[in-house]
Amino acid sequence: MTNNKHVLSWIEEMKALVKPANVVWIDGSEEQLKQIRAESEAKGEMIKLNEEKLPGCYLHRTAINDVARVEHRTFICSRKQEDAGPTNNWMDPKEAYEKLGKLFDGVMKDRTMYVIPYCMGPIGSPLAKIGIELTDSTYVVLNMDIMTRMGKPALDMLGDSNDFVRGLHSKADIDEENRYICHFPEDNAIWSINSGYGGNVLLGKKCFALRIASYQGKNEGWMAEHMLILGLENPKGEVKYIAAAFPSACGKTNLAMLIPPEVYQKKGYKVWTVGDDIAWIRIGADGRLWAINPENGFFGVAPGTNMKSNPNALLSTKKGTIFTNVVHNLEDNTVWWEGLDKNPPKNAINWKGEKWDSASGEKGAHPNSRFTAPAKNCPCISSEFESKQGVPLSAIVFGGRRAKTAPLVYQSLSWQHGVFVGSIMASETTAAATGAVGVVRRDPMAMLPFCGYHMGDYFKHWLEIGEKLGDKAPKIFNVNWFRTDDEGHFIWPGYGDNMRVLEWIINRCEGKADAVETPIGYEPKAEDINLEGLDINLDTLKGLLGVDVNLWKEEAKGIHEFYGKFGDKLPAALKTELANLEKRLG
Ligand code: GTP
Ligand code: SPV
Ligand code: MN
C-alpha cells in the first residue's frame, strides 16, 4: 500500500517485537471491512444486531475490568520528567520502552496484526494529521473505521513523509496489573497494552488527537482541545461558531447536537454539529481562530440518551453503529440502556453478559457504556464538517459540573482573564474514567487527563495565542448546567434550553447584549435570558446567576493551592488574575 520507508521500517521493527502470525493492511475498502466484521462476529467479539431495526449495527462487551479510561495507568514519557509536569504520570521513556517491550514481546504470535493508516481531520486539510495504529483487535479496526478517515487515502496523504504518529496496541491478556497507556511525545509514538476499551485503545482519539497533538500544537503554534464545535444559525441564516470544553461526561455531545426550544425553532434558530469531543484550532490567514473536528464519528455516552434529551445523537446510532457495554435486548435483538425509555426489556443480557432482570435494581448498561456512530448519520451535521480550513470561532466556552459555586453563565473580562477562568475549572468526576465518581477536582480547560506536556507551559501557550489574536480573539465564557437545589435536583432544565444561554453568549460577541460586572466576570442581566416557555421564574434565574462571595473566597484558596503545584511554570499573568479576583471579592 505504500513505499514510505519510514512507515515500512517502523512496521518491520514492531513486527520483530510482537511477532504476529499474520499482518493485514487495512485499506478501508467496504469489501475488506465486511470480512473483518464477519471474523469479529465469528469470534464472538461482535454481536450482529437486528438488521431491519439497526442495519449494520453491532454490540460489543469489554472485559468487566476494562470499562473506562485508566488515568492512573496513563503516562507521558517525555525525556525530562519536568516536561510532563505535575498533573501527568511520568515514566522515563527508556524504562517505558523496556517495561512495555517485555509485555509486547511475542504478544501477537497467535494473532493477526492489523495495520491501520488513518487521518485525523478531513483528508487534504492543512490542519489534518496522519497516524498509523498497529493492533490485534478487530474491534479497534471497526471503531477506527467510524472514528477516523481510515485506509489508503491516509497513506496517500502521508506520501514519503516521516510525520505520522506511531501507535502500537495489543489487548494482550486484558491484565489490569499490566495495563499501560504510554505516550512518547518526542518520538510521535503511543504504546497501549492490556486494554480493549475506547479511550485506551482507539489511539487516534484521546492519545493522539489530544495528548500528542497538544504537544505538537505547542511546538507548532496551534491548539488541540477537548472541545465540541457547534454552529448556531440565526433567523437571518447567519451561522456563528462556538467551541466548548467540558470534562468527560459533562455534556459536550448533548450541547453539540442541541435542538432549540420551540420558541426559538419558530423564529428559525438552528444548531449544526461540527464536532462533539475534540477541536484542532489555529490562527487563520485573516487573524481569527479557526477550528476543525479531527474525528469522523461520535464515541458518545449511551445512558441518558433518548428522543427527548438528544434525538440527534440517538438518530445517529440507527445504522452502522457499534454499541459497547449496553443491554442486549433479546426480545428483538436490539439494545437498551438506562434512560433510553421507561420499558427495560424483559428478556435481556446486561453489560457483563449475564441474564438481567431490571427489577433487580442493578443497572443493565454500564454507566460509561458508549455508542460509536458515524458523523454522517447525524441529522444536524454541519455543512462545514468536511471543510478543510474549518470554521471561525466567535466564542470559547468552559464548563463543568458544579453543584454550587459556578453560576449558570459568566463572561471573562478579557482573553487573559478567560485563560484564568479556564485554568481554574473544576468539575465532579464521572464514570468516563475509573475511580470515584462525584468528587470535585480541578480540571483546567477539561484537559487535566489529556494535556501531553507541562500544564504551566500549556497555560503560557494559551496566553501567547491570545497575544497573537489581539482584538480578533473570540470571547471566553464559563457555563454550569449542573447547579442543584437543597435536595440535590438540577435547577436549570439544561439540554435544548441551554440555547437560551448560547443566545446571550452570541449576543455578547456581537455587542448586542448588556451585562453586569460581578467579582468573577460579566453576567447577563436576568431579564436578558429568554425564559419564554419555561417554568422557571426570574427569581430562580437570579439564584442560578448568583455569585456567593464566601464560596468564591474559599474557591480562591483552593486555586492558590492548585496553582502552587506549577511552581515557576505558572505564568505571572495568571497570578495577577488570581490577585485581581481576590481584590474584587474584597
Ligand atoms: P464524553 O463523551 O465523555 O466526553 O462526554 P460528553 O461531555 O460528550 O457528555 P454527554 O453529552 O454525553 O453527557 C454526559 C451526561 O451529562 C449524560 O448523562 C447527559 O444526559 C448529561 N447532560 C448533558 N447535558 C446536560 C444538561 O444540560 N443538563 C443536565 N442536567 N445533564 C446533562
Ligand atoms: C472521554 O472520556 O472524554 C471520552 C471517552 O470521550 S474516551 O474515548 O474513552 O476518552
Ligand atoms: Mn470526551
UniProtKB/TrEMBL annotation:
Keyword list, A-Z: Cytoplasm, Decarboxylase, Gluconeogenesis, GTP-binding, Kinase, Lyase, Manganese, Metal-binding, Nucleotide-binding, Pyruvate, Transferase
Annotated residues for binding of GTP: A249, C250, G251, K252, T253, N254, R370, R401, Y495, G496, D497, N498
GO BP annotations listed: cellular response to glucose stimulus; gluconeogenesis; glycerol biosynthetic process from pyruvate; oxaloacetate metabolic process; propionate catabolic process; response to lipid; response to starvation
Catalytic activity as recorded in UniProt: oxaloacetate + GTP = phosphoenolpyruvate + GDP + CO2
Pathway entry: Carbohydrate biosynthesis; gluconeogenesis
Main location: cytoplasm
Cofactor list: Mn(2+)
Any one annotated GO CC term: cytosol
Binding site for substrate: R69, Y197, G198, G199, S248, N368, S369, R370
Cofactor note: Binds 1 Mn(2+) ion per subunit.
Binding of Mn(2+), residues: K206, H226, D277
UniProt domain Phosphoenolpyruvate carboxykinase GTP-utilising N-terminal: residue ranges: 10-217
Molecular function GO terms recorded: GTP binding; kinase activity; manganese ion binding; phosphoenolpyruvate carboxykinase (GTP) activity
Task of the protein: Catalyzes the conversion of oxaloacetate (OAA) to phosphoenolpyruvate (PEP), the rate-limiting step in the metabolic pathway that produces glucose from lactate and other precursors derived from the citric acid cycle.
Subunit structure: Monomer.
Family: Belongs to the phosphoenolpyruvate carboxykinase [GTP] family.
Protein name stated in the entry: Phosphoenolpyruvate carboxykinase [GTP]
Biological source species: Acetanaerobacterium elongatum
